[in-house]
Known about the structure:
Chain A is an alpha/beta fold. Chain A has 19 helices and 14 strands.
Amino acid sequence: xxxxxxVSGPSTSFEAPPPVTPAVRxxxxxxxxxxxxxxLDVRNLVTYFYTYDGxxxxxxxxxxxxxxxxxxxxxxxxxxxxxxxxxxITRLVPDPPGRVVSGKVLYRGADLLWGLDQEARxxxxxxxxxxxxxxxxxxxxxxxxxxxxxRGGGIALIFQEPTQAMNPxxxxxxxxxxxxxxxxxxxxxxxxxxxxxxxxxxxxxxxKLARAVEAGDDAQVRAAAKELGDAVNLPSxxxxxxxxxxxxxxxxxxxxxxDLHKASSRLRLSGSQRxxxxxxxxxxxxxxxxxxxxxxxxxxxxxxRAHHRALGRQRARAxxxxxxxxxxxxxxxxxxxxxEEAAWKSIxxxxxxQIADPxxxxxxxxxxxxxxxxxxxxxxxxxxxxPEILMADEPTTALDVTIQxxxxxxxxxxxxxxxxxxxxxxxxxxxxxxxxxxxxVMYAGQIVEIAxxxxxxxxxxxxxxxxxxxxxxxxxxPSKTLTTIPGSVPNLIYPPTGCRFHPRCPYAMxxxxxxxxxxxxxxEGHQVAxxxxxxPPTTE
Amino acid sequence: xxxxxxxxxxxxxxxxxxxxxxxxxxxxxxxxxxxGGLLSSHIGDVRAVxxxxxxxxxxxxxxxxxxxxxxxxTVGRLLLRLIEPTSGxxxxxxxxxxxxxxxxxxxxxxxxxxxxxxxxxxxxPKAQAALKELDEIADQYSIYRKNHRAMxxxxxxLQIVFQDPFSSLEPRMMVREVIAEPLEIQKVGSHNEQMAxxxxxxxxxxxxxxxAYRFPHEFSGGQRQRxxxxxxxxxxxxxxxxxxxxxxxxxxxQAQVLNILEVxxxxxxxxxxxxxxxxxxxxxxxxxxxxxxxxxxxxxTETxxxxxxxxxxxxxxxxxxxPIPDPxxxxxxxxxxxxxxxxxYPPSGCHFHTRCPAVMPxxxxxxxxxxxxxxxxxxxxxxxPPPSTSxxxxxxxxxxxxxxxxxxxxxxxxxxxxxSGALTTTSTP
Lengths: 540, 429
């Protein structure tokens, strides 16, 4: 490629990010009562799109913090940069034309955007306001690999259109299994290897389950199946036993014990199956270690080439040993226990999002499921790897209200159960009011106000927030006339000078045209960027 | 639905801005055939609209609410005859005495009659006479009986604004041509008169004359939707179907468009059918609301009545599911389980019984008729027995006196003479 970059050695000017401390309490109580530690710290994010018409200044200095167990709503009109913020954090901005230009995203002390300044060089074109971007594709690729080590595992994503986020040619089970094998593969293998299908407690447990099936009480069957799972030392076998038993109940219970015994044969490994599992485990271990090396690179700010080379050698050796299992017929036989284990684990994940008949759903293909059901599958996939952060881009916009209520209830439940921090990107202020703890309002690529959800809806400070809130038709206040915000969102190739909202602002002053308002604190944790307010500036 | 539907002329009828009945939909049905199997034979029907009746008065906005796939848009298209109905009529400008005769005929025939059933010869002579009378009225007033020429001139009076302003404007036509196209087709005025009308229309929807020489892609979503409204207004219509006109727009722009629609309605005495899944918008704009579920009307009443006293369990769940932009508000939510069933294989009896929190044994067997349980408040649900059955025991009276919004207990109430007959064993679970 012609676009190589003149790089002056590895970055030495990079300062190690300061340790992440539970900063001053700025938000109201989270679901848990107390705000948790900061798990995501976004600082001065700048993202531009270099198009033929000019540079679209999509994000201009976006900063916010997300705490553990907190839901942060990111709201704003179309084209204000909500989704771009989410994509910039995870480096998913389509590149070209887009590029994250500068900023820091600190996750567990690691800067996800580290090395950004060396990835590309910007050359102003001779004519117009176009800018040529010369990328170093080697460095872009390395950066993608680094962030890729956190995507899915640490930060999971849910996209707006569930029908387009899934692959139409694989069954639901295959797609959820893939996520489980990628992130929880080692645990799955260890589970199979540690299972005791012929342990002393197994036969009594099977008989007990058979009796429960005869009794016909579903709760009893479920408890007995769980007991069987414990006896086999593999919880997913308990799930399998439960659905087998349920199926058997409809056809007559005589064969339950035999069926269960037969099902447990997937845990009696042959020699080649055992060898396959060991060789896969080594590969997965190498992959996991290399992810850890990537994270450590981002944390310490220097490349760890020696580490990568050593891991590369290990990987090569493991692949060499695994060659027999590339032969289709052998692979099919040898990988069966692992595939079945992943499938049953994915059924457990689907149970977790309250899908009524997970076995049936997991056998289906995306086109057979409704939008709400698919969105549940997406959430199950995102939560299968127990992420610390869940980023949801308009998760309910494509759904009906009754289904939306189900999904929002589910997300609230997940947050309180797993303690996931949620970044909820949406244009629907009502949804945010129902689920978020804190809200960040965006306008034209900047955050204009961040506050605790009650403060924001009770005392909106920024004129844009006020306009937005008063333009919503409300069920509870029907007689209220709708006020509007005159004009529309500006073209971000030529953004307004100073405060980007000034052309539409009813309180615009001369200073608004000249300089960008600083972020000031008005009351506890209520941050606003407007010249109308003269509180102390925020620390950043 | 039940024969008395059309008497449900609401009390708002006395309001100064609402005039006489403009359009009356009666027993509208639209089945889309499912083809498959050998020689792609007809193996079933998607019952998109299954017996919908309501009236729209002059200067009135009727809101049509429901989840996706419940047949809202199909009803809108049927009212404009953009698609032909399987059966049923839409009477346009029928005088009240004619509508009274229509009701009389339907009472004779029964709630679910179609002409096809009548031709099979299984009807009593009285019902056949009623069918014949209905046929005569339909020939005169039903828009589905108009010939091509009459329909073309009628099209100018019945207009539509579509949901997506990005796909409903031809990208290769200037705004001027887009708005003048209806005038062109109906041959209204000379070129100069047409251009003057275009400028006038642009002014009415809050755009300026220089916008006439631009192309649709140069406008934002809200501005495009205004262009669509201007185009719908070009022929001075009496009735406009607004098919989710603001769902593709941001809230601040949505408010602009809704305000424009309200001003236009007052100035031109327009009638709207406002189709939306967004109940807060419906509450802001409509005078009366029709709630649909799987092709049928489940509740039909005035807006304030519906939102303060929803009676059907589906409406109650729908209302409680809507998020309200107020974090201080805490409500009991009714979370419905499951999805909307497929309209190709609707559940038996009441279509909602698979998801209903207050389901009773009778619900899966008998389809509840739309009954007037309070003056002007029509509900299709077994929880509410028809008032005519027990005038003395006071089932309807206690409802009318307004005892809360929850379904009243129907235990122990005599319901023996209810029209379907199978209701006798009903009791709340």
